[in-house]
Fold:
Amino acid sequence: MTTFLKACRGESTDFTPIWLNRQAGRYMPEYRQLKGNRTSLEFFTDPEAAARVTLEAQRQLRVDAAIVFADLLPILQPMGLDLSYAPGVGPVFSNPIRNPDDVTNLQVVPPKEGTGYIADTIRFILSDLPSEISLIGFAGAPFTLAAYAIEGKGSQQYTIAKSFMYEHPQSWFELLEKLTNSIVGYVNLQIEAGIDAVQIFDSWVGCLSRYEYDSYVAPATQKVFSSIADSVPKIYFATGNQHLLQSMYATGPDFMALDWRVPLVQTWKELGCPAIQGNMDPIAVCATPEVVKEHASRLLEDVNGRPGHIFNLGHGIVPQTPVDNVKLLVDFVHEQSSR
Structure:
């Protein structure tokens, strides 16, 4: 069993395993070169290219787990939403959901038909991934996918999505049911292809109150976790969600991944998770090497060797991050935690 998987089970390890959200991406020259002029959607859905980026990031950084290079949103395209990635804007849906009829028209496509490329990507990765390194798959959570589909692009206030949720509750729950079925199929396809763990990203859920989460979101999220095969650890991650952590953990993940704004050890004790993931401020990795070491050291000292800690950032690596700082962080965590 890999060091990462031992930590997922709360078992003692020789050192603290580390992997990083967005450990493959724009901050790496190799990624930009490989992507070239291809659109993001073309790149995400090209199994050989996605596998190469996944493997290159793991090799360069020497992290203990690779995560499949993909994006949350292409799963929505087979359902009937027209996705593109606009330069300087990000993902955009040209036909966002704006009324109940739009929800009715969405299709739940069998995963091999709609997103079969993800299984091919995983097989390419596993053919060249060292046996001591785990492979993490992932998917977006129902709320975050629904919010993107309704807003049509990135948002600060989520006005359109939340208004739809309030005004059309029946259609909202119909939408979440369709998304849940697609997510479960997509994740189980990844498990069949050979991933070792799965992380569910709920990037936008922090905009909800606890009442809203419990009333409008938790049942669908709970169905996701209960319907994913039990053969792999299930991790749940969001940001800006300190007020939701108890409710989120109650939906059924094996453990939580924390953003950088919450005290890791205190939160770990309060939740009672067998493991925890996080939660260094990603912006600290943009600073000097001394700052990187200071932040990492403080977190490791707080955890004090408690089994079950998986070191990660409290969000993704930002594009401005120096690659050498990321390598330094990984090496430092390995060295300090093995002492």
Summary: Residues 125 and 166 are 42 Å apart (CA to CA).
